[in-house]
Write a structure and sequence with these properties.
The chain is α+β, with helices and mostly antiparallel strands. The chain has one helix at about 5-25, and strands spanning about 50-55, 65-75, 80, 85-90, 100-105, 110-115, 120-130, 145-150. The strands form 3 sheets. Strands 1-2-7-5 form a 4-stranded antiparallel β-sheet, with no helix packed on it. A two-stranded antiparallel sheet has the order 3-6. The termini are far apart.
Amino acid sequence: MKRMTRTGYVIAGTTAAALVLGGGIAVAYWTSSGTGTGTAAAGTTSAVTIAQTGSITGLYPGGDPATISIDITNPDASAVTIANVAATVSGTNKTGCTAADFTISGNAWDGGTIAGGATQSASDATIAMVNATTSQDACKGATVNLAFAAS
């Protein structure tokens, strides 16, 4: 077996030192930890708009019911779900002619989902003039005011 020379020891020592130092750098790293906070907000909806479409004319005591037609518009970008739209008689423009002289059958709309920015048309309710046992002359030519409420 051959003996190692001084040059061989220098090369072996330099190689070993390079491996130890190089290996130490290759696996060196920093550790850290931390915390943080943030927020998120839920959106809101705007009220739908409900408008009667078409005219209802010719109501008389005991006459046939007339269909109430409406459009329900969703101004939001996202869809909304509505259980129903109720219609009521809120009054008339004639003294002595009251909401009690008229009857509404059904909901103006039985409900559903309206896509964002869309309009839903409905004709689910009817209005009729009650045939009372007393004179209803006060209702001749009356304008019957309707109110709509979505829920």
